[in-house]
Every structure is written in structure tokens, then in C-alpha cells.
Design brief:
Number of domains: 6
Number of strands: 26
Structural class: alpha+beta
Helix content: 40-55%
Radius of gyration: 36 Å
Distance between the termini: 66 Å
Largest sheet: 4 strands, antiparallel
Shape: extended
Strand content: 5-15%
């Protein structure tokens, strides 16, 4: 794990910038550079001196360390700046009213205090507006106090008649469902640039039954949740990157053993770091700076943390967003912050007051247009989806909200002993569902544990989920999927019985056993290591050289022991979980060849399904393609195979032939036409403009050639003869 420590960076900071830093450790500005570095590193290495140094910090500096601690000791400077301000701590006037670069003044002051360094190549350099990533020494944040915010001075509104929130089991159900879907897919492949593949996201949406544009949750539209949660998982500890594939760090069952607070906190922390998905998609603002959403989410969380704790009730969005504007409106905007007006001693005091008033009016106007809409969008999407807030509705419009018990648990962990606690997921199995004869499973979310939710997501297909219940269905496919993941039939039956309110219907038990028996006739293994040999003798020779495994067929060995080196076999390795190389070539005549010396376990069998094998490759024919289609295979699958395995694009003519052979209606028309060629441009222009000839002409072929109706050739010749135009012999058309 990366260590955030100053030691190796300090030698790269200029001496004049090190001198102010040593004061916190009892040093003097007269020290030379080497003495400054020694003073700082010695202080950081002594926990008692760190504790004493932290006591000298002002509240806003302590807030800065608290924010950095929340972000793992590293955060963009502009996020740090706005999070400190959102907490409501007082920032010294000489910093807050800095004439130049007001938003970078906070970051610069923290650097001179010795609390942060730049995360870029130059640890003592900070770019304009504090946009540089900054980090602090982990030995400082280890003893730093939690973030303390000043509560907003707002009062509750009348309790609404209609309010709604998502209960922790419902939230956990969705999170576990997404994790299970990713597990079933074997992970999510990335592009070479590290972006999510469109096909992977599409497959994930299909697995969790989410439409492409978004999903309705309790009547509220959530745009593109698949991207939102994959990005959240990606930036948390839930997914790790291996060979350009995002895979789960732990199984959905392991994730489900944690408390609801920890489950949601993982996802929330990942979402804070994401800069791909946008809350604004639903309201037509797709193209704003995504980095601003990064800032905005931190601002909103600090704002939610600043809600009064001594009163219990809903707060209006109007009061909340105004209180937040009063703290950060001059320093933050989703779009662009208007710079504070500058004065050059020629303006009178009244002119300065008027200019400041006009500036603040403009800031407020812009805030209402953009930031207020963003706050509502954030509350309606991830804040509601994760169960942090309960929303008040007035004719389907959100006009107020309050924190849920889960929201308090996540934002105010220090109040866990005094505030209403979250109903933690039970650790032991409870009677949480009813299995019906039609294979539907009705799960009661108030009684179910997160581990039981993971069990149902593993073996059943979820059809719908409400606030209190969720409907699943046991299908042959879902049961196969669960058994292929490593579980047994006994695990399935035992889990169903333990969690059921009533006895499992006999027809369900009988059918489940039959499905399992059918599945056991074929074993599908994931992530195996399989070796292919040219012949049986080579395989036997390899097994005699301490290569452990199970012989499959005549030429394959399923490795069962640990293998560190295969070089002595002269073999090549292929990971079939990743994209395989492009190895095919194809001619316009349908001749397919594999790259010389290339082998894998799939490609030959895949080509055999569509083409006739030849001594030097495969030949596509009308008969071979027709037989493949008649057997139930889809041409689209074969075309997709060619698209990802061909070195060059499939010839369009070959593509046309494949469509025709697969039953497509490919038609063209062929007819005879007489060409009238005029070498003399004057002759051509006269003939083309002739009213007499017009009825007999089909049009122009080139700049000096006309097309004549074959049936009208005699009439054309008569007209030309009358005009004295001589017709020479036929001309040849040649391609250059």
C-alpha cells in the first residue's frame, strides 16, 4: 500500500519554502535547507511531537486535515478548499480576501504551514485555483480529529403528508445484485485506455434489468445507474484491476457479511471519487465539467452533515441550498464562478459596495439556475438510492428532505450511541421468504439478512423489488449459474429451507433435483489452466516430467497442481478470459486462413461450424453457411467472431455473400444500355440539351457520355443522321 509521507519529497522543495514549515516543529527560519528537512522529519517521526503540533493548529487547519483523512490523505486542491468552507469554519481574512487567486490561497497557506505538499512532480508548486492534487503526511492524519462542522441555522418545515425513503435491505439488495452480476460475467473488461467497454456495460444492464437510459426507482428517474455504480465500485475497494479486467476483491457473500453502514460507505466513498457519471444527465446538462461533480458531492455531504442535530424534522430545499450558498457560493460552481470584483483605489466606498452587491446578486442568480438544480438531482439520485435521505413530496415535486437513520450512521458515526441506530443486517439465518409452487420466492426485506439476499441473488432471478418485499424466481438457468459458481445442490436446498417461513413445495424440490442432475452431466469450469499437446505421445512425455493434471481426451491436460514454469514445453500461454489476438485472414472468395504457428482451443472449432475445412484453411460456401443457420446458429454471432479475430476488415462482397447464403434477400438488376460517346464537348452539350433526343435518353454516364434506351436506338440514329452527326464504331471502356 502506498505510504503518504513527506520524507522523500522534502529535498525537492526550495529552501525558502521549507523555512516557514519548521515553525510548527519548533524550528527557526535561520536554518539551512538540510536542517529544515531534519527538523520536519524528526518531528513527524515522534508521535508525541505530532500530537503537540496538532494542538497549535487553527480550526480551519484541523478541518483541512480531517477532510484529507476522509479522502485517504490525498485530494485535489480545489476539493479541499471547498470542503473546508462548506464545514463553516472561519478562514482568516488575509486568506479569504486574497486579491489574487482566492480559491488557491487556502491551499497555499496550508503548504506554507507544512501540512500539505503537491502530489505532482514538483511538491512545492501549486497551479492556479488550487487544482493541483495535494497530499498530507499520514502521521498527521493518524492523530487528526474527525471533521467538525458548524450546523446550519435553519428550522424544520411542517411534516409532509407524503414522504419516502429506501430501507437498508433494499439498498443492499441492489448493491449485491450488481456485484453478483459482475461476478457472473467474470469481471468487466476495459479498453486499452482504461475505459469501460460499451458491450460490458450493456451486458451488465441486461443482467440487472436496467434500461439503457436509466431506471425508475419509486417513481424517481435515476440516469444510467450501471455506469454510476460500476464507477463507484471501481474507485472503492470492491473492484481490483488484473490484466485490464476489473474483478471483485471479495465475493458478494463476503460483502454481505458487513453491516449496512459499511456496505453503503464503501459505495459512497467510491462515488465521491468518480468523475465519469453525472447527476445532470436527467435534466439535460451532460457536458459540464465532471471534476465539478467531484467537488459538488463532497460539498453536498458536508452540507448534509451540517443539518441541525438538536431538532428532528424535514428541512426545505430552499433553506438548505441557501445556507450552503452562503458558505461556498463565492467559491464554488458546477459551471463557472464569477471572479470577485477588483478595486484599484479610484473607486469610492459606495461604488465598491454597489459592485460587490451586483456581483453577489449575479452569483445567486447563477446558483439558482445551476447549483440548486444539481443539488436536487443529487438528492434524487445517489443520496436517495443509497438510503441517506428521506424525501418530502408535494404533487410529485421534492420540496424537502431529512437524513434517514442510515444517513445519520454514515455522516455522524460519533452519534451512534445516542441517535436512532440502523437495523443491522442479522448475522444468522431467519425465516425471510416464502417459496411458492410456481417457483417464485417472495422475500420480506424487513426480516432478511444481507447474506440471505446474496444467496437469492446467486440462485434466483430478481423480478422486482419494493420497499418491503422483493420477488425472485428460481429458473433452470439461475440454478445452473449458482451451481457453476461452486455451490452444491445441498447448499441450495439447505439455504432455501433455512430461510423459508413454510415448507418448500414438493414440486419445487423435485424440479430442483432434476435440474441439478442434468447439470451434473456436464461440468463447466471457470478460470482453468488447460494445456494442448500436438499428439498423445507429447502429452505422456510431459506428464512424466512432474507435470500434474487430469488427461482430457487424447491431447489435453487439465492442470491440477501448481505450475510455475512451462518454458520447457516450448508452449505459449493464453488467458481465455481476455480478448484473444487477431489471427485470421479472409479473401473475397471466402477462403479463411489462420496466422502461421498460431493456435488456441476455440478458433478451429468455431470455424468448423460455418466453413468447410481444407488442407490449408477453411472455405465458406453457400452450403456450409446454410447448414449452420439451419442448425440454429446465428449469422450475427459469426460476423462478430470475424470482427474480433480478423486482422483486416471483412470484405464487403464476402459480407454480402454471407447474408445471401444465410437467407437474406440480396437483389440486383442487370440490363442492356447503349452508350452515346461524344469526344467533342460541343457535340455532347448539343445532344444533351436536345428536346428531340430527351425522350430517348436515360441520362448521363460521364461528362461526355449519354445513355440511350436500347429500344429507341433507331429513332436516335434517325435524328442524328438528320443533323449530320456521324456515328463511328463501338468504343471500349477501360479502367485506368
Amino acid at each position: 500500500m502506498y505510504q503518504h509521507r513527506f520524507d522523500k519529497f522534502l529535498p525537492h522543495v526550495n529552501a525558502d519554502k521549507l523555512k516557514p514549515m519548521v515553525r510548527m516543529w519548533g524550528g527557526e527560519s535561520k536554518m539551512i535547507k538540510a536542517e529544515c528537512i531534519a527538523c520536519i522529519t524528526n518531528g513527524l517521526s515522534d508521535p508525541s511531537r505530532v500530537s503537540a503540533a496538532l494542538q497549535t493548529l487553527e480550526p480551519w487547519e484541523q478541518a483541512a486535515l480531517a477532510v484529507l483523512k476522509l479522502y485517504g490523505n490525498q485530494v485535489p486542491g480545489e476539493v479541499l478548499d471547498v470542503a473546508i468552507r462548506a464545514a463553516g469554519v472561519d478562514i482568516p481574512q488575509h486568506i479569504n480576501n486574497s486579491r489574487w487567486d482566492r480559491r488557491g490561497a487556502v491551499v497555499d497557506a496550508l503548504f506554507h504551514r507544512g501540512l500539505i505538499l503537491s502530489g505532482d512532480d514538483s511538491p512545492g508548486y501549486f497551479s492556479s485555483y488550487g487544482s493541483t492534487t495535494v497530499f498530507t503526511d499520514e502521521r498527521l492524519t493518524a492523530q487528526a480529529a474527525p471533521l467538525v462542522v458548524r450546523p446550519f441555522e435553519i428550522t424544520p418545515i411542517t411534516a409532509p403528508q407524503n414522504a419516502m425513503y429506501r430501507r437498508p435491505p433494499t439498498v443492499a439488495l441492489d448493491m449485491i445484485g450488481v456485484l453478483q452480476a459482475i461476478s457472473n460475467m467474470g469481471g468487466l473488461r476495459l479498453t486499452q485506455k482504461g475505459d469501460l467497454r460499451v458491450a460490458e456495460v450493456k451486458e451488465l444492464r441486461k443482467a440487472v434489468n436496467w434500461p439503457e437510459k436509466g431506471v425508475q426507482i419509486d417513481g424517481i428517474f435515476f440516469p444510467d445507474p450501471a455506469t454510476a455504480w460500476v464507477e463507484a465500485f471501481r474507485h472503492s475497494d470492491l473492484l481490483s484491476l488484473q490484466n485490464n479486467v476489473l474483478i471483485l476483491r471479495e465475493s458478494p457473500e463476503q460483502f454481505a457479511t458487513q453491516s449496512y453502514e459499511d456496505q453503503i460507505r464503501y459505495v459512497l466513498e467510491g462515488l465521491l471519487r468518480s468523475n465519469v457519471w453525472s447527476e445532470m444527465m436527467d435534466i439535460g446538462m451532460h457536458y459540464h465539467n465532471q471534476q465539478k461533480s467531484y467537488q459538488g458531492r463532497q460539498v453536498l455531504l458536508v452540507g448534509l452533515k451540517s443539518l441541525p442535530l438538536d431538532v428532528d424534522g424535514f428541512f426545505s430545499i430552499d433553506d438548505f441550498e441557501l445556507a450552503l450558498f452562503n458558505r461556498i457560493g463565492e467559491h464554488f460552481s458546477i459551471s463557472y464562478v464569477e471572479n470577485r470584483p477588483s478595486f484599484y483605489r479610484k473607486e469610492t466606498p459606495s461604488q465598491q459596495i454597489q459592485a460587490l452587491a451586483e456581483w453577489q446578486t449575479k452569483l445567486r442568480k447563477n446558483w439558482l439556475v445551476t447549483e440548486r438544480r444539481w443539488i436536487i438531482a443529487a438528492l434524487k439520485t445517489w443520496a436517495y438510492f443509497l438510503g441517506l435521505v428521506e424525501l418530502a413530496l408535494d404533487e410529485n415535486e421534492i420540496n424537502g428532505f431529512r437524513l434517514t437513520a442510515l444517513g445519520y450512521a454514515i455522516l455522524h458515526p460519533e452519534l451512534a450511541a445516542t441517535h436512532e441506530t440502523v437495523a443491522h443486517s442479522p448475522k444468522t439465518a431467519t425465516h425471510a421468504w416464502v417459496v411458492q409452487p410456481n417457483f417464485e420466492v417472495i422475500a420480506y426485506l424487513e426480516q432478511i439478512s444481507a447474506l440471505q439476499l446474496a444467496f437469492l441473488e446467486r440462485f434466483a432471478e430478481r423480478k422486482q423489488a419494493n420497499q418491503h418485499t422483493a420477488l425472485f424466481r428460481l429458473t433452470r438457468h439461475s440454478v445452473y449459474r449458482g451451481l457453476e459458481s461452486g455451490a452444491s445442490l445441498d447448499d441450495l436446498l439447505e439455504g432455501l429451507v433455512r430461510g423459508s417461513h413454510a415448507e418448500i413445495p414438493q414440486n419445487v424440490l423435485i424440479e430442483l433435483r432434476e435440474w441439478a442432475a442434468l447439470r451434473e452431466q456436464i461440468t463447466l469450469k471457470h478460470r482453468i489452466k488447460l494445456l494442448e499437446f500436438p499428439d498423445k505421445q507429447s502429452l505422456e512425455t510431459a506428464c512424466q516430467r512432474d507435470l500434474k493434471g487430469k488427461i482430457v481426451g487424447e491431447r489435453f491436460l487439465l492442470l491440477t497442481g501448481k505450475v510455475s514454469k512451462l518454458d520447457f514445453l516450448g508452449s505459449s500461454r493464453k488467458n481465455y478470459a481476455l480478448a484473444l489476438p487477431r489471427c485470421l485472414s479472409i479473401t473475397e472468395q471466402g477462403r479463411i486462413r489462420i496466422q502461421k504457428d498460431y493456435q488456441d482451443l476455440w478458433i478451429a472449432a468455431q470455424l468448423d461450424q460455418w466453413a468447410e475445412r481444407q488442407s490449408d484453411g477453411w472455405q465458406l460456401t453457400a452450403d456450409s453457411v446454410a447448414k449452420a443457420v439451419q442448425s440454429g446458429k446465428k449469422l450475427a454471432d459469426f460476423l462478430n467472431l470475424l470482427a474480433i479475430r480478423l486482422k483486416e476488415s471483412l470484405p464487403k462482397f464476402t459480407h454480402l455473400a454471407l447474408q445471401a447464403w444465410a437467407g437474406g434477400d440480396m437483389k440486383a438488376e442487370l440490363g442492356k444500355t447503349v452508350a452515346l460517346h461524344c469526344r467533342n464537348n460541343e457535340v455532347f452539350q448539343a445532344l444533351a440539351a436536345s428536346r428531340q433526343l430527351r425522350p430517348y435518353l436515360k441520362g448521363k454516364l460521364t461528362h461526355n457520355t449519354l445513355l440511350v434506351n436500347d429500344a429507341d436506338i433507331e429513332q436516335v440514329l434517325a435524328i442524328l443522321e438528320w443533323a449530320g452527326v456521324t456515328i463511328s464504331g463501338n468504343f471500349e471502356v477501360r479502367s485506368l
